[in-house]
Amino acid sequence: MALVLEHIHFASRRATKTMLGGIRDILRLQSTATAQPLPKDPRTISASFNLEPEIRQYICCTTCCAIYPYEPGNLPSGDEGTVAAHCSNRPSSKPEICGVPLWKEQMVTGTQTRTVPIKTYVHQGFKSWLGRLLARKGVEDHIDNCDSTRMSDNEPLEDIWPSAVFRDLKDPSGKPFYPGPGTEARLVFSLSVDSFDPFGNKTASQSVSSTGIWLVLLNLPWFLRHQREYMYLAGIIPGPKKPSIDELNHYIQLVVNELLELWDPGVHFSRTYKYAIGRLIRAMLVPIVCDMLAARQLIGYAGSPKSHYFCVYCDLDVDDINITDRKEWPQKSATDVRRFAQLWRDLSDPVQKQCAFEAFGWRWSPLFDLPYFDPIKFTVTDTMHALHLGLLQTHCRKLFRIDIDHPGGEGLTTELPKSGAVQPRVLNKRCLKLIKVNDPDLLYRLLEFVRRDLFSICDHFDIKGQGHTLVVGTRWVLAKNIYSWVSVSSGWDYVKSYPSSASSFRRARFL
Amino acid sequence: MIDGRDVDTDNVLDEGGPYDDEDEGDAPEESEESGEDDAVLVEGEADSDFELDEYDKKTICVVRNLLKKEGESSSVLSSRREKAYRQATKSVYLTICSSLDLPIPTGSEKNKKFLHQAIVASVRRVLYLLIWRLLTDSLKIDADADQHSLLTSFLPDNTDLTHDAVLGKDIMAHVWRDMSQCRLPSWLSPAPPNWGTAARGKLSADNWKMVGTIHLPVTLIWIWRNEKGRKRELLDNFMDLVTAVRLSNMRVASAEQIDAYDHHISRYVSALGDLFGLKSLLPNHHGALHVGDNLRRFGPSQSHGASFYERHISFFHRINNNRKIGESQLNIWYLWN
Predict the structure, then answer these.
(1) Which end of chain A is less congested by CB atoms within 10 angstroms, N or C?
(2) Residue B97 is inside which H or E element, if any?
(3) Could you tell me if A382 lies within 8 Å of chain B, comparing CB atoms?
(4) Inter-chain contact B312–A311, Cβ cutoff 8 Å?
(5) What is the pLDDT of residues A440-462, one digit of tens each?
(6) Do residue B250 and residue B180 come from a single domain?
(7) Measured over all CA atoms, what is the biggest interatomic distance in chain A, rounded to whole angstroms?
(8) How many Å apart are CA A100 and CA A506, to the nearest integer?
(9) Does the structure's ipTM exceed the value 0.85?
(10) Chain B contacts of A196, Cβ < 8 Å?
């Protein structure tokens, strides 16, 4: 009865305790014998039914969002020596260690105080969640029967499984990922991250925001996969501010660590609903399903869609935004992106880090730890945000414009549009000299210049990427084109001299 | 502004060729309006030393009468336009059409009356486009500030244009009335009845979807059904967007459907610059061009849609957290599973 009250009607623990005490008293009036075995504390029964999710707690730094494992009852180092008293993380944007206190004194009674963590983050164990899911009746039938067959390429797609990306997924041994051999189960998850105001949408100004991290099991049919009881909620990052830029990484790392184990070697669950002797489970994380801002932060790409690096899918610079011909868009390469991200991670100096970021537009994200992860293919533009809000709203409000005080016209404006194209400017002498000297580090040294300098050079010497009729691309693309143009015209082997290490970049920056 | 040295309008009028007799005689009395105005827009031709032949003179005269002058009332304008209509021949109109890049109609629509309407409908827009092309580098005119303001002053009805929203009072009234008479299937929730007013405020993504794919097309297609000029282009362009949005929201994704999406969204995005003078596209426009690739990769959008977590966020909103952050974390877990 206490169990029902607590878990179905969500009575507070104190209320159930009072109720238990009341029943005990009533029973004691009747006879002493039956009252004795009644427990006093409802926690006993909850624990014996094993209903609560397995969770791990972390203390998080209030400034840099770094997290430290924490068990209730731990005290700052000294007593048990398990948790640091101050944050020892070194944020990527600062040269020094954060050093913010993680604990505060809390008044318990009038004079007594105790030390408590300032902010905690609660993370749900992924494996225990999965174990419970697999113990449910019917779940395994869905998991093992995803239909990824497709008669022809022209057959309409009805779900994500027969899609091109899903059919190309490979397991660590290079065989198709789904279905797995023997009794092995293969799962595919999608990752979603979104911020919300924990105090409800009552006020328009979003001053406080928490961030939730979800995984959705795509093996389930579409009507089940987004139900709360089938989704894995990794945790809610407490507010009041969103974790900025790479601070989110600390939390994603927890999820990634568990996913890594599920990728290779996989996790053997000792018993599931269908397999009493247990089965091996492997899992992948494929689509990133978020709104554009969160997705960019998640994969470590430049945050703002108005920055030079405005597109996740192609290597077009924001100055080239008016180019609508798909053939002119330079492709991003996943291996290059991974290399840029590693470069950023391996640099230790915040100034260098910032330079590397500005040159390539990428920061490290824990998702790159997953060997199969492809940030370009796996990121999904959310149609709801992009099309409904982005285009229809813009069209009605900015292009058509709504004016309920005047009769309708033809939507002309007096604000004369300016040309969006960048005009080439005088060639940068330093840059020209560099090209003339043709140092082996040329490629990386070129990245020191702003995009407009590189654009002017490309425009002047008519340097274009292969198969392009216009000078397009981000700094990296332009620098690469100049570099290959210089090397080819001076008879060098472009591929051989392609420097690829962080040290080369470091040298280039501070020669 | 330069005056004088005009071609003598009345002279041209007298010498003009035989009028086209296709229209029924609803021409009003000749309004005695002389041509001694500052016809800025044809100043180039009038100023030049070329010998203009009669045909050219007549064309200029017609053009001048078609254009609106500064501070002119609409009744005077319409009488001048009628005068132009009487002066012009079909071939003059065809010349104007081709020099303004207007589509030349075919078949039965290729009559004088129709051409006249088409030109009048597009006069403002053509002028507008011409001048902004002059000012931007597409024509490579390096205008300094003075020239810039001079050119800007040539734009017709400067004051009027600030209130030239497409969805004006009358259109919105139409839209709202149609909405109130429209019965939707039960699984669609209509946009708020007074959308677009300040009182209503922001609309959700779903509201915009309804506005864009149902309410606006229903009304605009009806009220613009006979438009030929700019409004027709606006409608065609808007319908490209609507089609693209609908294609991207379907429950299944086939190859032809995605190709159609790409076709419509490309046409929509490419036309924005000319139609609205958008100086540069927005990141969302570019992003929309990639949506087709995503559909190809992952199948229909509902299988990877992100709207589901809005639902779960409303679940978090219902949890009472006593306005404290980070302390009631544990409670979420009891409630979640």
Answers:
(1) C
(2) helix B90-99
(3) yes
(4) no
(5) 777 777 777 778 778 877 777 77
(6) yes
(7) 103
(8) 30
(9) no
(10) 313, 316-317
